[in-house]
Amino acid sequence: MNFSSEIIAEELRIFETRFKDSVKSNVPLIDRIMRYIVKTKGKQLRPMFVLLSAKLSGSINESTYRAASLVELLHTASLVHDDVVDEAMERRGFFSVYALWKAKASVLVGDYLLAKGMLLCLDNDDFRILQIMSRAVKEMSEGELLQLEKARSLNLDEELYYRIIRHKTASLLASACAAGAYSTSRDEDTTEKMRKFGELVGVAFQIKDDLFDYGNDDVGKPTGNDIREKKLTLPLIYTINHADPAVRRELIFILKNQNKKQHKIDHVIDIVKRSGGISYAVSKMNSYRDEALALLDDFEDGPTKETLVKLVNFTTDRKK
Fold it and tell me: Is 157 helix (H, G, I), strand (E, B) or coil?
């Protein structure tokens, strides 16, 4: 990563241990899959947001570590289930759980992770944190189903796009920041402020993901993948809504009927780039990022806040 997380290095190490413990099972198959998941998991951005949001409001405690583990459990469960839905054979450059253990085991493992997360909180009376995170699970499911429904009709409403990504992507980051803040502050106003902060960062994060579809960075998925799956991303929505009628008709026809042909996908990408769709999405991403950072003005300056700002900037500057 291109920012220093030294201020929470020890806390991240403790979290790693707690997370590994939280996924252990006496069932050999589950334990084998869990070890594989732990070995191949990603950057741990969400636990970092939990820990930094907590540290911004007080001293990190056992409740904070459970909140960080719960976030990672829910995130991992959603990825395992997503790979089944998408029939994805890879995840972060490794074989997916779906590729190695197929659909039935993957669905059950996702369910196991959700149950472990709930029990982690219930067994320790972290009811408010569980409530905060359960809201995210509900909204993530709603967002995915809303996107599935609208992809069929090619709905091109920009506000609907924001509604989908607020639910599908931003809700988990919002809940991560809220849970972290609550674990140390026990203050609902602070919790809500950090929830809003996380939501804004989450929207910026998703727009950045959208932009990867139009670049050549190695991001773990082929360029044009969103077009192939008929996912309406912000650069494409802007381009179609601002194109002249003939180009608009052409783009919609390709999305509906030729979205698997690479040369047609390349043609769509070229039109989006020439039509200002990329620069529009970048400006919206930066606007959400700046709105999120403005919410931190109410907190005391110091190393924790400085690291959190760097983490936010990383989400919009990252290369994959």
Answer: coil
